[in-house]
Amino acid sequence: MAILVFVESADGKIKKTSVEAVCYARAMGGPVTAIALGTVDRSELESLGTYGANKVLHASDEKLGQGVIQACASVLARAMQDEQSDILVLANSSLGTPVAARVAARINASLASNVVSLPDTSSGFVVKKSIYTGKAFSYVELTHPKKIIVIRKNAVEVKQDGNPAQVTPYKAAYSDGDFAVRVLSSEKASGEVLLPEANIVVSGGRGMKGPENWHMLEDLARTLHAATACSKPVSDIGWRPHHEHVGQTGIKVAPQLYIAVGISGAIQHLAGVNSSKCIVVINKDPEAPFFKAADYGIVGDAFEIIPKLTEAIKAAK
Amino acid sequence: MKILVCITHVPDTTSKINFKDNNTKFDNSGVQYIIGPYDDYALARAVELKEATGSSLTVLNVGLAETEPTIRKALAIGADDAIRVDADPVDSFFVASQIAAQAAAGAYDLILMGRESIDYNSGVVHSLVGEMLGIPSISPVMKLDISGNVAKLTREIEGGKELLEVSLPLVAGCQEPIAEWKIPNMRGIMSARTKPLKVVQAKAVDSGVRLLKFELPPPKGAVKMIPADQVAQLVTLLKTEAKVL
């Protein structure tokens, strides 16, 4: 089973979720080839070897770094052919998932997204998927010879114990038609921990009373090297940007630790966080439904508790 | 312009999820069905574009006869006519193949749907349809404007957004805040009853995926409450018990 892994990067650095994808491929067994597009730091590419990539291909065309879906799909479909890959592994992202789908339709591969654990190959090739917005799982058999797997965060443990890999330049094949979608501009929060990739998330709700109080959550997040998030009402009233909204119709997160402050825990919010490993809820209302979904809870005034929590974490470091 | 909006018929977001027949079927007893929330955004924007540009608007669902009340609701919101592909929507590849077949036959300029369904959440149907038709696909779209033959879209990306431009035809997976959800008015509900709803046969597809069974997550343990003046204790528990710090 030759495996190809699509590695995404931002500002020259490999995304953590793509490192997980490499670890996932390694854990499946079989030779692992990683492919990265656009401008990426050489040391970052070499480091993929330490996570289990036997070979690293780099198509350095700057144009490919724009993340145009059709262009990436063309390059990957061709790379699977060149490398005689049986399986393509990608991390779930705004680029990875659509690219996976287009490659699947092009080469007639079995496709599974939101995959949460390693495949079971004891009888056929069976993957476990998260469905009903984290409220259930399904087991799906992939029957075509070519398979494409899009993994969710935390689908596999990250292990780093190999040697750096050689980086091979790769001549990517694409056509002008692949760039029919023109990227006019992009805005990205920089220098912060991105929400979908964060191991720890600090999230605030209407209980924070206003955007001017968010500095408390930002202090806590900085101390924990966490991303900040919010509930739907908070992004609806414009206290925080939409890309921080966690829930049924927003971002679904699966961090190690989710700290919810002043969020009551409507079922639609829980749908976005129920894959978190550990949930801490801080709310002044002891009847807040979120406590039922939490691992740890504190009833009290967030404006007193949050600075204390930040200090306690600093003290414990 | 010809607009096609694809909708899913899914359990209400507050539904309790259970399975039956040895965990091989969704248990729909007591479950209310709705238009998928993301599809509802796509439909709302499509109605606005139809009104602004004098376009036609067809709504498409892949589902069994039970989905017709949901399709009628979309007609009440403002679609002109509807197509139901008569099949159980078992997987993304199957559904996308049906949509692509209908879209090719109808020569639509703009194909809208939600970024994902809220039952299977795969989030791939728009991209599969785009590839099957050989046209661009963009998702998740937060803003969509059409001027002549050119679409300008805002797509959400990790930690931000990007502004894109592309010529039609196009497939877009939509999400908020592309438009406000529309609630059907009485006139819409009355007229929806007589709007055309065509039922077509599904085409045979080998999608290469076979659903074996469902599973519910293990029940959550009881919450451990910590007094508000013992915050340090929480930090200790997160380190030593939960092992997440």
Helix share, percent of chain B: 25-40%
Binned, the helix content of chain A reads 25-40%
Structural class of chain B: alpha/beta
Assembly state (oligomeric): heterodimer
- Total number of helical segments of chain A? 8
Flag low-confidence runs of chain A.
none
Order of strands, widest sheet of chain B: 11-10-9-12-8-1-6-7-13
Q: Approximately what portion of the residues of chain B adopt beta-strand conformation?
A: 25-35%
- Describe the main β-sheet of chain A briefly: 7 strands, parallel
Layout of strands and helices, then pairs:
The complex is a heterodimer of chains A (about 325) and B (about 240).
Chain A: E1 3-7, E2 9-10, E3 13-14, H1 16-28, E4 32-37, H2 42-47, E5 55-59, H3 69-82, E6 87-91, H4 96-107, E7 110-115, E8 126-131, E9 136-142, E10 147-151, E11 167-169, E12 182-188, E13 200-204, H5 214-224, E14 227-230, H6 232-236, E15 257-261, H7 267-273, E16 278-283, E17 296-299, H8 302-316
Chain B: E1 2-6, E2 9-11, E3 19-20, E4 25-26, E5 33-35, H1 37-53, E6 56-63, H2 68-77, E7 81-86, H3 92-106, E8 110-114, H4 125-133, E9 137-147, E10 150-157, E11 160-167, E12 170-174, H5 186-192, E13 197-201, E14 209-215, E15 224-225, H6 231-240
Parallel strand pairs in B: 1-6, 1-8, 6-7, 7-13, 8-12, 9-12
Antiparallel strand pairs in B: 2-5, 3-4, 9-10, 10-11
